[in-house]
Design a protein that fits this description.
15 helices, globular, five-stranded mixed beta sheet, about 425 residues, alpha/beta, seven-stranded mixed beta sheet, binds glutamic acid, disordered N terminus, Rossmann fold
Length: about 425
């Protein structure tokens, strides 16, 4: 088992902190920080204009002591092995925290999907499966959508894999419902954010109704979080995407904004809103700042200046370790990624169960299952944070790390 301690991603310090709190020794920590497998493949792609460009695809599998490896595939120019290592580990912590019988993995391709035609994207995806198929499978490793990938990409993966192994819908989750996808999978991460925020408000004897939220990111996670929070009576005062941000302190009409984004490809240009840059958006005064874009959005500098009461991590790892320490010092509550952004993988799990049992669930069953799992995880995290007088992130990491370590220990020795 390769160790990643040599070039530890800085976020690995969250894991280290949990291991220290749990009084694990170096041997136990290296078991947690170790990775089972890393795959890197080169994919020369003939572009539509006849030129050749080589892309690299990766899959990092952290552990499978609790079940098959599970986690997203991201298509983004920034994809690199070191970050994927931490993200794979983060998936293990997510699945452990919500008690799914799954492990953790992450992968992707270092491409910009916005600059590829549909044909190029399809060829690249199929090529990736041709190179990766021995390392994925319904009982081995089950990819899902992540940054820059969607249900369509999952449908191509399923099809290419099925060419080799016969019809196998359980090889990926987040597929279109017509070919085995779970109802509500696309909105699940966003809805999970709403459920966790609601639970935390209840825990503080508060409510979401009438609160304000700023959302960084209006992709698959951010837009569904915005819709869910609107349904819960939260006023969304500003949102951003990779092109920039918009603000309306009286509240944005989220339904219309979603239509605008689909039509124009960006939130910019939405009527009855003013433009605001991404940094200014992060510093807005609000009850909730929902981070639903890329990792590392809040470092020490931003953390020392932001004015939100509560930060919600809808993306993976949006608050850097150093930023998190500043927020803890400032008494700003963070609803951590391994809790707040777990709705997606919970519904992925339901999809996988449907696929291996060939028995579709209704959307009501899925919503009920999601609510039960997230509520239980929230209760556990809030209890540990109160009992051990630590942040919600520390509590979540301690619970997940202990579960993971116990499973790794039992299966390894
Ligand atoms: N990409 C999502 C995440 O980071 C979902 C992973 C999955 O469903 O397997 O949680």
């Amino acid at each position: 088992m390769a160790s990643i301690q040599g070039d530890m991603h800085e976020s690995m310090r969250f894991l280290k902190e949990a291991a220290v709190a749990l009084e694990y020794d170096d041997r136990e920590f290296s078991l947690l920080a170790g990775l089972s497998r890393e795959v890197r493949v080169a994919m020369p792609l003939q572009r539509d204009d006849g030129s050749i460009q080589t892309y690299y695809g990766y899959r990092v599998q952290h552990h499978n002591a609790l079940g098959p490896y599970k986690g997203g595939l991201r298509y983004h120019p920034s994809v690199n092995l070191n970050e994927l290592r931490w993200l794979a580990c983060l998936m293990s912590l997510k699945t452990a925290l919500v008690e799914l019988p799954l492990g953790g993995a992450k992968g992707g391709i270092d491409c910009d999907p916005k600059l590829l035609s549909r044909r190029e994207l399809r060829s690249l995806t199929r090529y990736f499966v041709q190179k990766l198929h021995r390392n994925i499978g319904p009982n081995l490793d089950i990819p899902a959508p992540d940054v820059g990938t969607d249900a369509q990409v999952m449908a191509w993966i399923q099809d290419e894999y099925s060419v080799i192994y016969g019809y196998t819908p359980g090889v990926v989750t987040g597929k279109p419902t017509l070919v085995g996808g779970a109802r509500g999978r696309e909105s699940a991460t966003g809805r999970g954010i709403g459920i966790v925020m609601q639970e935390y408000a209840h825990h503080r004897a508060d409510e979401l109704l009438g609160k304000t939220a700023v959302i960084q990111g209006f992709g698959n996670v951010g837009r569904h979080a915005a819709s869910d929070l609107t349904d819960r009576g939260v006023k969304i005062i500003a949102v951003s995407d990779s092109s920039g941000g918009i603000i309306n302190k009286a509240g944005l009409d989220v339904k219309r904004l979603v239509k605008h984004k689909d039509k124009m490809g960006s939130v910019l240009g939405f009527d009855s809103a003013e433009e605001i840059d991404n940094q200014a958006l992060l510093m807005l005064k609000c009850n909730y700042l929902v981070l639903a874009a890329l990792g590392g959005a809040v470092d020490e500098t931003q953390a020392s200046r932001l004015k939100a009461e509560i930060v919600v991590e809808g993306a993976n790892n949006p608050v850097a370790y150093a930023g998190d320490l500043v927020l803890r010092d400032r008494g700003i509550v963070v609803l951590p990624d391994i809790l707040a952004s777990t709705g997606g993988v919970v519904v992925s799990y339901f999809e996988w169960v449907q696929n291996i049992q060939h028995m579709p669930w209704s959307e009501d069953d899925i919503t009920a299952g999601l609510t039960v799992r997230l509520t239980k995880a929230c209760d556990g995290v809030f209890a540990v944070a109160t009992g051990q007088n630590c942040s919600l992130r520390e509590a979540a990491h301690r619970i997940a790390t202990k579960r993971l370590k116990d499973a790794l220990w039992i299966t390894s020795f």
